[in-house]
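I would like you to sit down with the record closing this message with an eye to the fold:
=====
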Amino acid sequence: GDCRFCRAFAHVARRAARPPGVRLLPFGHPEAEHALAFLPEDDRYASVHALRDGRLYSATNAITYSVIGQ
C-alpha cells in the first residue's frame, strides 16, 4: 500500500509476528478481500486488521495481536 505507517508496521510485524505463521496481505489482495468481505469497504480500508478463528481484530488491537499474540 501507499501508507507509510502500514509499510513500516508490515516490516516490523514480519520480523516479530506472534504467533508464528501470521500472514500479511495488502489491501486489495484477493485473499484479504475475500476474508474481509463482510466489512463495508470504507471500514475495510480504514485500518489494519487481523483475523483468526473467525474473530476480527482491527486498528491497535490488530497490531497488538499481530506482534504480541494477545
Summary: The chain has a mean pLDDT of 79.
